[in-house]
């Protein structure tokens, strides 16, 4: 079973690339982030024509998450995170897919630092951690997949100096991510590549793709029962180099 996290950076702009990816790779489950589409304009029929059922939690022009399942319809479990009734951002969607619990996550960027956007990022992270603890208590196979907007380690970035002042690398961001892992989650890509040096994102600016100046912010975390089925993990990097591609590459874990 191949489970993919894919920040498409605008599903309408990137729909040809997404459909291409589904046709060529046939992943079983795909968690999408940054749809930048309202619920009404989500391309449901195109996705269904490609052989996938879908759930989505849209927001016009910003944010937005979805879960696609090959040959079946995901069953919604939760839309959004609790703990802040004033939070209207579409950043969390959770579903049951053939007995597996899957969440698509688009964590706030948090820039500039310091400021209200960074505070929102940290508060949102704590709410995610609370939900993750609840999921672990179910003792089920769970995958938390998404764009976490956190560079966990120094070897997860092309240049520590270049990103030192960014919200993605602040000590508070990293600590929140480590608190999540400490609950008992397995970072699948880190397990496969313990020495780091694997990127999932390359900025459109300054020739980042051409220079391979990227970093790792897309993560698929496994509950203990899911980790027992861990087979492999990786990044379908070549898709970042295609015409009008997202600035993220599809990142995946394979469960036996």
TrEMBL record:
<feature type="binding site">
    <location>
        <position position="149"/>
    </location>
    <ligand>
        <name>Mg(2+)</name>
    </ligand>
</feature>
<feature type="binding site">
    <location>
        <position position="147"/>
    </location>
    <ligand>
        <name>Mg(2+)</name>
    </ligand>
</feature>
<dbReference type="GO" id="GO:0006281">
    <property type="term" value="P:DNA repair"/>
</dbReference>
<dbReference type="InterPro" id="IPR036691">
    <property type="entry name" value="Endo/exonu/phosph_ase_sf"/>
</dbReference>
<protein>
    <submittedName>
        <fullName>Exodeoxyribonuclease III</fullName>
        <ecNumber>3.1.11.2</ecNumber>
    </submittedName>
</protein>
<dbReference type="InterPro" id="IPR004808">
    <property type="entry name" value="AP_endonuc_1"/>
</dbReference>
<feature type="binding site">
    <location>
        <position position="247"/>
    </location>
    <ligand>
        <name>Mg(2+)</name>
    </ligand>
</feature>
<feature type="domain" description="Endonuclease/exonuclease/phosphatase">
    <location>
        <begin position="4"/>
        <end position="248"/>
    </location>
</feature>
<dbReference type="Pfam" id="PF03372">
    <property type="entry name" value="Exo_endo_phos"/>
</dbReference>
<dbReference type="GO" id="GO:0008311">
    <property type="term" value="F:double-stranded DNA 3'-5' DNA exonuclease activity"/>
</dbReference>
<feature type="site" description="Interaction with DNA substrate">
    <location>
        <position position="248"/>
    </location>
</feature>
<keyword id="KW-0464">Manganese</keyword>
<dbReference type="InterPro" id="IPR020847">
    <property type="entry name" value="AP_endonuclease_F1_BS"/>
</dbReference>
<feature type="site" description="Important for catalytic activity">
    <location>
        <position position="218"/>
    </location>
</feature>
<feature type="binding site">
    <location>
        <position position="248"/>
    </location>
    <ligand>
        <name>Mg(2+)</name>
    </ligand>
</feature>
<dbReference type="InterPro" id="IPR005135">
    <property type="entry name" value="Endo/exonuclease/phosphatase"/>
</dbReference>
<keyword id="KW-0479">Metal-binding</keyword>
<feature type="binding site">
    <location>
        <position position="7"/>
    </location>
    <ligand>
        <name>Mg(2+)</name>
    </ligand>
</feature>
<feature type="site" description="Transition state stabilizer">
    <location>
        <position position="149"/>
    </location>
</feature>
<keyword id="KW-0460">Magnesium</keyword>
<comment type="similarity">
    <text>Belongs to the DNA repair enzymes AP/ExoA family.</text>
</comment>
<feature type="active site" description="Proton donor/acceptor">
    <location>
        <position position="147"/>
    </location>
</feature>
<dbReference type="GO" id="GO:0046872">
    <property type="term" value="F:metal ion binding"/>
</dbReference>
<dbReference type="GO" id="GO:0003677">
    <property type="term" value="F:DNA binding"/>
</dbReference>
<feature type="binding site">
    <location>
        <position position="34"/>
    </location>
    <ligand>
        <name>Mg(2+)</name>
    </ligand>
</feature>
<dbReference type="GO" id="GO:0004519">
    <property type="term" value="F:endonuclease activity"/>
</dbReference>
<feature type="active site">
    <location>
        <position position="106"/>
    </location>
</feature>
<dbReference type="InterPro" id="IPR037493">
    <property type="entry name" value="ExoIII-like"/>
</dbReference>
<keyword id="KW-0378">Hydrolase</keyword>
<feature type="active site" description="Proton acceptor">
    <location>
        <position position="248"/>
    </location>
</feature>
